[in-house]
C-alpha cells in the first residue's frame, strides 16, 4: 500500500474532501485506513462497570486507501508515492514531485 501508519495524508473524495490528517491505522487486507479527524461517526457507549461513564462519543471510521494521498513533508503538496531501492539495498518511498524520501 502507498500509505503507512503515521503518514500525513489529504482526503481526495467524499464528504471530508480536502481534509488533512495523520494515519492512525492501516488494514492492508481490506485496503482501508483510519485517518485522524476524518469520517467521524457517533457511537452510543453503554457503561459496563460501576463508576464508568456512558454517553455518545465521536469515533473515526475506516475509509478506502484509494481516497487518500500522501502529503510531502518538503514541498507540502499532495503527491504520488514512488518506490526505489538504494545502493545499500534498502527500500524507500519518495515523492514523485520533488524526489524527497518519506
Task: Tell me what the structure shows.
- This protein has strands at residues 8-11, 20-27, 32-35, 40-45, 55-60, 63-64, 68-70, 81-85, 91-95.
- The protein has 102 residues and is an all-beta fold.
- It folds into two domains: 1-71, SH3 type barrels, CATH 2.30.30; 74-102, no CATH class.
- The strands form three sheets. The chain has a five-stranded antiparallel sheet, with no helix packed on it. Strands 4-5 form a two-stranded antiparallel sheet. The chain has a two-stranded antiparallel ribbon with strand order 8-9.
- Strand 2 (20-27) and strand 3 (32-35) form a beta hairpin.
- It is elongated.
- It starts with 7 loop residues before the first strand and ends in a 7-residue tail after the last strand.
- Residues 2-29 form the KOW domain.
- This is Large ribosomal subunit protein uL24.
SSE blueprint and pairings:
Blueprint: E1 8-11, E2 20-27, E3 32-35, E4 40-45, E5 55-60, E6 63-64, E7 68-70, E8 81-85, E9 91-95
Antiparallel strand pairs: 1-2, 1-7, 2-3, 3-6, 4-5, 8-9
Short description:
By secondary structure, the protein is mainly beta. Helices cover 0% and strands 42% of the residues.
Amino acid at each position: 500500500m502507498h500509505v503507512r501508519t503515521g503518514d500525513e495524508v489529504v482526503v481526495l473524495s467524499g464528504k471530508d474532501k480536502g481534509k488533512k490528517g495523520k494515519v492512525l491505522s492501516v488494514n492492508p487486507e481490506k485496503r482501508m485506513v483510519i485517518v485522524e479527524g476524518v469520517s467521524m461517526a457517533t457511537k452510543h457507549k453503554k457503561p459496563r462497570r460501576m463508576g464508568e461513564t456512558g454517553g455518545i462519543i465521536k469515533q473515526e471510521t475506516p475509509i478506502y486507501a484509494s481516497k487518500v494521498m500522501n502529503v510531502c513533508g518538503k514541498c507540502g503538496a499532495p503527491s504520488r508515492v514512488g518506490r526505489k531501492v538504494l545502493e545499500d539495498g534498502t527500500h524507500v518511498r519518495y515523492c514523485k514531485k520533488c524526489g524527497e524520501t518519506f
